């Protein structure tokens, strides 16, 4: 994303998600944040490694994401691991709920970033968990690509 547009600032990246899950579809969702959460995100200190999204009561929620307290926030600070509401339109929400309920998929956050307008956005993936043999296969493939690039580089 940031390679395409220099105005986008990536705050948190869930690199393990691409290894542990087979990504089927991605979409962009807005985040409902408080002022101290935005300031803390702008400092680049957040973690979405163990978080996931869930549809509850017709709304989409980001659960278990970590945005640390803003150091100058005093008593107006936020809870670091609170549930955060995600903003998507109704059609996207229905599609996500159907994928999770019927097809047994999960919603995994991939990135939190600030777009060109300075709004915090979340790249959310609908994914299917990989089995252990699939992970090994992906690891072998990645190692072979590295070795192939190394051999070609030495040759020329």
Automatic annotation (TrEMBL):
- Provide an example Pfam family for this protein: SmpB
Q: Does the keyword RNA-binding apply?
A: yes
Domain of life, per UniProt, equals Bacteria
Q: What does the UniProt keyword field contain?
A: Cytoplasm, RNA-binding
InterPro entries xref list:
SmpB (IPR023620), SsrA-bd_prot (IPR000037), SsrA-bd_prot_CS (IPR020081)
SUPFAM superfamilies, alphabetically?
A: Small protein B (SmpB)
Purpose of the protein? Required for rescue of stalled ribosomes mediated by trans-translation. Binds to transfer-messenger RNA (tmRNA), required for stable association of tmRNA with ribosomes. tmRNA and SmpB together mimic tRNA shape, replacing the anticodon stem-loop with SmpB. tmRNA is encoded by the ssrA gene; the 2 termini fold to resemble tRNA(Ala) and it encodes a 'tag peptide', a short internal open reading frame. During trans-translation Ala-aminoacylated tmRNA acts like a tRNA, entering the A-site of stalled ribosomes, displacing the stalled mRNA.
PANTHER family given in the database record:
SSRA-BINDING PROTEIN, TMRNA-BINDING COMPONENT OF TRANS-TRANSLATION TAGGING COMPLEX
Q: What is this protein called?
A: SsrA-binding protein
Q: Which organism is it from?
A: Chelativorans composti
Task: State which gene encodes it.
Answer: smpB
